């Protein structure tokens, strides 16, 4: 499906991202954000650039904190937004909560997605 920012996944239920993380053998980068969070808006601008830069190296999921997805966000232990989880082979290798700067996000994604196989 094509969305505003290109290819997007359509989730059928709130546990699907968690099931994907557990079963996928590659790298998954999860961004948790709030629609009314000012820092989240700044992070999302860079996020879209990073997704394009790292295309083919990892699966990227941006997950909004909504009342429908609250249980899933809290289920992975996220309590502050914006938050980043990088998962390789089902293991969390990087967690940033909250993301304090665009540079922090960029450094983590480049280090764990592009530089490390």
Helix content: 25-40%
Indicate the radius of gyration in whole angstroms.
13 Å
Mean pLDDT: 81
Q: Please tell me the total number of domains.
A: 1
Sheet of most strands: 4 strands, mixed
What is the number of helical segments per DSSP (H or I, 4+ residues)?
Answer: 4
Strand order of the largest sheet: 4-3-5-6
| Gross geometry | globular
Number of strands: 6
Distance, first to last CA: 28 Å
Residue fraction in strands: 15-25%
CATH fold label: Glutaredoxin
CATH class: Alpha Beta
Structural class: alpha+beta
Low-confidence stretches: 1-11
Kindly report the name of the CATH homologous superfamily.
Glutaredoxin
Q: How would you describe this structure to a colleague?
A:
With 117 residues, the protein is an alpha+beta fold. It has one domain: 3-Layer(aba) Sandwich (Glutaredoxin), CATH 3.40.30. The protein has 4 helices and 6 strands, in the order E-E-H-E-H-E-H-E-E-H. The strands form 2 sheets. The chain has a 4-stranded mixed sheet with strand order 4-3-5-6, with helices on both faces. The chain has a two-stranded antiparallel sheet with strand order 1-2. A hairpin with a 2-residue loop joins strand 5 and strand 6. The longest helix is centred in the middle third of the chain and has 16 residues.
Write the layout of secondary structure elements.
Layout: E1 2-3, E2 6-7, H1 16-23, E3 27-33, H2 38-53, E4 59-64, H3 70-75, E5 83-88, E6 91-96, H4 102-115
Parallel strand pairs: 3-4
Antiparallel strand pairs: 1-2, 3-5, 5-6
Helix pairs in contact: 2-4
């Amino acid at each position: 499906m094509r969305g505003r920012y290109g290819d997007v996944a359509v989730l059928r239920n709130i546990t699907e991202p968690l099931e994907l993380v557990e079963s996928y053998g590659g790298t998954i980068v999860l961004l948790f954000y709030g629609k009314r969070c000012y820092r989240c808006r700044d992070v999302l601008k860079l996020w879209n650039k990073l997704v394009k830069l790292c295309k083919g190296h990892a699966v990227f999921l941006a997950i909004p904190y909504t009342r429908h997805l609250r249980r899933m966000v809290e289920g992975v232990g996220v309590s502050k937004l914006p938050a980043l989880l990088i998962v390789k082979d089902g293991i969390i290798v990087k967690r940033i909560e909250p993301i304090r700067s665009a540079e922090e996000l960029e450094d983590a994604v480049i280090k764990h997605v592009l530089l490390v196989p």
